[in-house]
Amino acid sequence: MSRLSIQGGRTISGTHAVSGNKNAALPMIAAALLSAEPVTIRNLPDISDVAVMLEAAAKFGAKVVRDAAAGTATLTTPKLKTARISSEMAAKLRTSFLFAGPLLARAGRASLPPPGGDAIGHRRLDTHFAGFKALGAKAVAGRKTLRFRGELKGAKILLDEASVTATENILMAAVLAKGRTELYNAASEPHIADLAAMLNAMGAKIEGAGTNLIRVEGVEKLSGCDARVGCDYIEAGSYIAAAAVTGGELVLTGIDPEPFAVLEGAFKRFGVTWTISATDKTLRYVPKKHRRMRYDLGDAIPSVADGPWPAFPSDLMSILIVLASQTRGTCLFFEKMFESRLYFVDNLRQMGAKIVQCDPHRVVVTGPSQLYGGTFSSPDIRAGIALVIAALAAKGNSSILNAEIIDRGYVAVEKCLSSLGAGVSRS
Fold first, then answer.
1. Which of 159, 332, 387, 422 is most buried, by the most CB atoms less than 10 A from its CB?
2. What is the C-alpha to C-alpha distance for residues 173 and 168, in angstroms, rounded to an integer?
3. Residue 87: what pLDDT?
4. Cα–Cα distance between 216 and 221 in angstroms, integer?
């Protein structure tokens, strides 16, 4: 178990280069199995989830050449060795299930255990099953193994929820299916567009990625390509929050401006604004002396709710709760997507935050509160970084246990924060 030791009360300021988006990188690695030719992926974040996903791809038969420092990996899969994945590998990473679509498309079969991942609540696989069945696959859900088999044909598919991973899985299966596929109620997150751009560069025929209606004309085979992972706007939002709660000024480089149009409304609610230069892909945050929550008309207490894109992303809810605890005013947070994500607020209350948990999905936060250091354990990636941000703003020293979970989504967090003035070390 890894531990982060954090000295509270130090200002986070400086310049930070934003990493590649983990949520784009993982499906792009899976998609590389769709071609027998070399596929190079650039701007890969050097995080443990990427390492595990590349390890899984190698077990399926991909020859993987990686330069972690340069953020590149080339996968060449002339032949699939197997269409199965071990339970040990699946337990390490929920997105191991993203191999189901490519395996089914290329080998006509896939056999995977139920996936692992963060314990933030139930995440159903029904939408994946329904999509694969609509494409002509036979699906069997056993207690320990999920099996898919069949020749795929294009179909009109209405997803019962705008699931990101289901959209990605079905999209990867559909590119090699015979005929035309129309995917309604598709997820529209930026990483869906990244995946589709990569598949199109490989020779797929996809239209509408980034909207809720995606059309795919199946092709016989895909070629190699050179693709790039977009910026991790969740990481960017986390570092902006760290600067805001410690009174620092921050410049982020290597950003893609588009996703920040979705984030800015919620951050403005807590007095956090930024400017973006699309020319050199930089974002600048300058702190305000006295941040206040912006109330609704009639001076009503505001609320922040998450949802499918372009609603505010669930992955930033934990971070925004910490930001609210350091902003004058009161706000209701409504976590609609995961019933266990908000349980981490018990740790914030122990630190001194004024938070009332109404139920598993809603908390009320009143700020600002003086936070005090302590010892806490990271329950998931986003709650873990939220606790780190709270510790940076706290009086005294803190220890965050189980820090290896944070490493699944954030590159060398102790080094990056230390370069910005934080006192963070790992043991």
1. 387
2. 9
3. 75
4. 14
312 forms bridges with which residues in the sheet?
306
Which residue in 97, 105, 98 sits closest to 80, CA to CA?
105
Q: How far apart are CA 258 and CA 233, in angstroms?
A: 10
Which domains does the chain possess? 3-19+231-426 (3.65.10.10), 22-228 (3.65.10.10)
CA atoms within 13 A on the CB side of 84: 5
Give per-residue pLDDT as tens, 97-151.
899 999 999 999 998 887 754 444 445 789 999 999 999 999 888 878 889 999 9
Spatial contact of 49 and 22, defined as CB atoms under 8 Å apart:
yes
Q: Judging by DSSP bridges, how do beta strands 156-158 and 303-305 pair with one another? A: unpaired
Nearest Cα to Cα of residue 7 among 367, 384, 381, 388: 388
192 pLDDT more than 70? yes
Active site residues: 118
pLDDT tens-digit map of 367-418: 999 999 999 999 999 999 999 999 999 999 999 999 999 999 999 999 999 9
What CA–CA distance (Å, rounded) separates 236 from 226?
25
Would you tell me the crossing angle of helices 317-325 and 233-246 to the nearest 10 degrees? 10
Phi-psi bin for 43: left (phi > 0), alpha (psi -120 to 50), beta? Answer: left
SS3 of 167-191: the string is HHHHHHHHCCCECEEEEECCCCCHH
- What is the β-pairing status of strands 423-426 and 205-207? unpaired
Q: How many CB atoms neighbour CB 22 within 10 A? A: 25
How confident is the model at residue 143, as a pLDDT? Answer: 77
> How are beta strands 180-184 and 213-217 bridged, if at all?
antiparallel
- 201 dihedral zone (left: phi>0; alpha: psi -120 to 50; beta): alpha
